[in-house]
Structures are given as structure tokens and as C-alpha cells.
Amino acid sequence: MSEEIRRFTHLPSDRAPGPDYSGPGVEAELTGRMPEGRPAERPERSERPKPPGRRGGSYDALYTARASSALGKVASDDGMLDVRIKAPAELGGPGGATNPEQLLAAAYASCFHNSLTLVAGRQGVRTSDATVDTAVTLRKRGSADDYTITTDLTVRLPGVEPEAARRLVEQAHGECPYSRAFMQGAEVHVHLA
Asked: Which residues share a beta bridge with 76?
């Protein structure tokens, strides 16, 4: 793709055949060493998969990340993430620390990159030089507290023919759990303790 930059704001919801999760399991799927309870090989599919929201059956929980936010910091339950949170200067805050939009951009870039690696690996395409840049923009409508976010992914696949790169990115977008959550709406449960 040389220096050509492909931007994707929305792609068709048809997914390429493959697993529903492509996070840390990428290495396991590519090497054939699958976590317990997951098959090493998938049967060939002869028909086009149904859109994710219309599939039968339920999803199996593979991993649950847990984090808490309090007193201007966010931390994961295992201590791997422990950072200060401050509003950026652009939003009237002091800056000098990360913020939710940066954390989301980092998580989305990482998840999409894993999905891209998985999709490319299945097709024997080398993507070790690939990069995924993600921009997350906080937006507001009117004077009320009506906020939303938009995301913009920029994928670079040096050395991959442009048409093949476009196909890989579309497939990764269809399989990435974050992309699917943004396109289809994530299942959200809010509890008062």
C-alpha cells in the first residue's frame, strides 16, 4: 500500500468467516495452540455467515477485564493498569495525564491490530510492519449534555498489494470486537451497588 492511507468510517456488516474474538488469542489461533475449550480447527463453512446480531446460540465468555475509576485514577484489578486521569486542556482541564478518550483509542488500535494480524495470518499475508492509528473524538451537540464519540482508524500495510490490503482491512473491521461494538451497539449492563 506504500504511503496510501485507507480510512474506514463504516464498512458493510457482512463478516468474513472466523472467530468472534481476536484479542490475545491471535497467537494461539495462528500457532494452533488454542486455549482449553476452543477447537484447534474450525470446520469449513459453505454458506455466508449470518450477520452477528442474528446468529443463533450464545457467546462463551473467554476473558473479563476489570477496572475501577476513583479519585482521578483508573486501575485494573490485577494492577497491570494504574494511571492518573485528568481532563485534557482542550476540554478545560489541567492536562498532564491520560484521559478516557486516549485509553479508548489505545484499546481500539490494539484490538483492531490483533484482528488484522489474525485475518492476514489465515491468508498467509505477512503484516509485521503494519500499523493501526486510531483517533477518538469527543463531540457535543447543542448546549445540553449531549455527548458522543467518533472514531477514525488509519491502517498502513507496507508491502501488501492495495487490493489485498483493502480486503484484509475490511475483514479485520468485520471481526474486530471493538469495531462490531461501535457499528452494532455493544451490550451494556449498568448496576447500582
From this structure: 67
Task: Give the residue from 128, 82, 134 showing the smallest Cα distance to 107.
Answer: 134
Q: Are 27 and 183 in contact (CB under 8 A)?
A: no
pLDDT of residue 144: 84
Q: E strands of 50-187, at which residues?
A: 67-70, 73-76, 82-84, 131-140, 147-156
Return d(Cα 170, Cα 26) in angstroms, integer. Answer: 18
For the chain, give the longest Cα–Cα distance.
56
3-state secondary structure of 105: helix
**In degrees rounded to 5, what are phi and psi of residue 133?**
-105, 135
pTM of the model: 0.72
> What's the rounded Cα separation, in Å, for the pair 11 and 182?
11
Residue 55 confidence (pLDDT): 54
The residues facing 105 across adjacent strands are none
All three cell numbers of 182, joined, read 461501535
Res 29 pLDDT > 90 = no
pLDDT in tens, 110-127: 999 999 999 999 999 999
pLDDT digits (tens, 9 = 90+) for 70-105: 989 999 999 999 999 999 999 999 999 999 999 999
pLDDT mean across residues, the chain: 79
C-alpha 50/C-alpha 13 separation (Å) is 10
What H or E segment, with its residue span, contains residue 103? helix 100-122
